[in-house]
Amino acid sequence: MSTQAIAFDWLPQEVMENIAFFAATTTDVGPPSDLLPLLLSCRSIYRALSLDTNLHLCARIFKYKFDLSAAVRRLGQQVATPDVLSKELRKRFVYLKRIRARTDSQICAPDTPNWPIISELLWLAYLMMLENDGKNVKQLREYAGMEQWLMEYWFNDEGASLASKTLSEDEWPLDSEHNSLAMWLFWLFLRPDRFQRTERNYRTFVTVLKPTALAANKYNICHTPWEDFVPKSCLLEPTCVNHYSNSYQLTPPTMAVPAILSYLSLVGPLVGLTRVVFKGPHTPNSFPSSLNQSLEWEADWQRCMNLAENPLTSQFSGAYKVGSLQGVWEGVFTYTEFTTYAALLSGRSPSVLHNCMVAQHRQTWKLREYHLTVSTGADGITDGTKSLSSGDPLKAFFPSGIRIHEHAGIVEVLEPGKMAPLFYRQPSACSAEAEGFKCPEIQDIIVVGEGHSAWGQFNVFGRIRPYDGFVSLLKEYVEGDRGQWLYRGYLVGSINGSLTGRWRDTLSLPGANGYEGCFVMSRRR
Predict the structure, then answer these.
(1) What is the pLDDT of residue 49?
(2) Which of 506, 474, 488, 521 is nearest to 221 (CA)?
(3) Whose CB has fewer CB within 10 Å in the chain, the N or C terminal residue?
């Protein structure tokens, strides 16, 4: 045994652990490889500090290299035990090394992709980003090279998404769980300013993103029927995901929403005069830095949980942060030539979209959010407030003949056939009224507002679906024959997020494919 090893042997356990911790964390990113020479110095040190036996040391290393607060906030303190964190540390670096090696980003002929491994890899990366407070994204970007992995997955001719392969055969990209997660990751890592503005790159992005963003008849923006305000269950079976040594039933978000965001982020600033007046939606990488970045994705996490429930909850349970739509929003809506879209609906292949013109118009919304609450008194008895009925989906779920009167901080809603009106209040007014009661439960949320675009002035009103935060807004032009248009989508993120999805005409029946386009709105900064 060397003299140095004998000296270490006499050190107290806590001192040895501190030495091992600093050896393991000499770099912020990557596995604790600098710990290995210390462990190999002698058997007694290996027995005392081995990651197999010293779970407390493992937990300290995990907390240094990865974010933990969001997981504890969402899943409970049980995920932060040394045993759980030691297993999670090993698991993460196994997958991060696999991403770094580009093992699964491409198809290696004649083999097919290893779908079970890719599923676990993508779920881990996606959940890490939803829990990111600064450390997780560094591991994925700087050590694992997740951005390069995603570029190969989506845009390489042999990419494991099969997007380039299927499109080269004039077939539609697969709408699968793997591609949904990978598209969300592409959006979460997207840095439009890092992409070279070349014709080749433009066509590369358009080839993959454009069909997914524009083809509303092929790629839904929600997993439950958009025309149902209270669906019974999700159309997609949930996935059992192992996270922090526990199994969770989760439903991945749809592929269309991040495809629209990515398409308008990369393509919008590149075409026509749009680059002068609209720079694209706020990407996650442009969000202001904070110690609690993961709070931005609280609702997105809860949506994955809520959609896995059966039956679906009828309450507002975290998939939408109340008050989020209040304020001024700026963005664009796109549309294609009607003949082109009609050809798409008649069954034409993706090539019909490749060379079609996509027009964009800027628009501004000023929105106000109102809540209908059920208050519970000190005796535990609720006030018995009845909710607004679920109405016509083409009218943003408002019943026909409804009358809405907006006053200072209050909206009075009178539904035909009901004796008394319902009073919705803005968040600040709700808080003041709730004194002396327990926190009021929000039973319904409606949105009222106005805006303008190149087509003229319009009014906006709509509702928010409780279990998944699906936003449905009816846009009605004040003058002329511009008509009514239904906007449907999700708020992606929170205070810095974007409201995105698709608009459609209100003349086609709800169950039929209508004339649709994309939109994205970001909060005015």
Answers:
(1) 62
(2) 488
(3) C
* H helix intervals, 242-385: 256-266, 274-277, 298-306, 338-345, 351-354
Which candidate, 505, 515, 502, 453, places its Cα nearest to that of 260? Answer: 502
Q: Which tokens is 112 given?
A: 């097919």
CB-based contact 122:181 (threshold 8 Å): yes
pTM of the model: 0.91
Q: How far apart, in Å, do the first and last CA atoms of the chain sit?
A: 65
Per-residue pLDDT tens for 404-425? 999 888 999 999 988 889 999 9
The span from the CA of 489 to the CA of 492, in Å, is 9
151-158 long-range Cβ contacts below 8 angstroms, 24+ apart: 152/102, 152/105, 152/106, 153/105, 153/106, 153/182, 154/182, 154/183, 154/186, 154/208, 155/204, 155/205, 155/208, 156/105, 156/106, 158/106, 158/107, 158/108, 158/109
**Are the C-beta atoms of 308 and 234 separated by less than 8 Å?**
yes
Q: Let me know how long the chain is.
A: 525
What 3 state SS string does 62-110 have?
HHHHCCCHHHHHHHCHHHHCHHHHHHHHHHHHHHHHHHHCCCCCECCCC
φ/ψ of residue 281, rounded to 5: -65, 160
d(CA 175, CA 32): 38
Give the whole-angstrom CA distance, residue 153 versus residue 164: 9
**What is the C-alpha to C-alpha distance for residues 25 and 115, in angstroms, rounded to an integer?**
33
Query: 159-185: per-residue pLDDT in tens?
Result: 999 999 999 999 999 999 999 999 999
Where are the strands (E) in 277-345, listed by range? 327-336
248: which residues sit within 8 A by CB, 6+ positions away? 240, 241, 242, 305
Residue 436: the pLDDT is 26
Q: Angle of helix 199-214 relative to helix 256-266, nearest 10 degrees?
A: 150
Inter-residue contact 66 to 136 (CB < 8 Å): yes
Q: What is the mean pLDDT of residues 136-153?
A: 96
Q: Are 224 and 281 in contact (CB under 8 A)?
A: no
Distance CA 238, CA 308 (A): 5
Instruction: Give backbone dihedrals phi and psi of 236, rounded to 5 degrees, phi first.
Output: -110, 135
Give the model confidence (pLDDT) of 73-112 as tens digits. 999 999 999 999 999 999 999 999 999 999 899 986 555 6
Q: Residue 459: its pLDDT value, please?
A: 96
Mean pLDDT over each residue of the chain, to the nearest integer: 86
Highest mean pLDDT among 47-51, 266-270, 518-522: 518-522
The answer to whether the Cα torsion of 154, 156, 158, 162 is positive or negative is positive
For residue 391, which of 424, 413, 365, 409 has the smallest C-alpha distance? 413
For residue 92, how many other CB atoms are within 10 A of its CB? 21
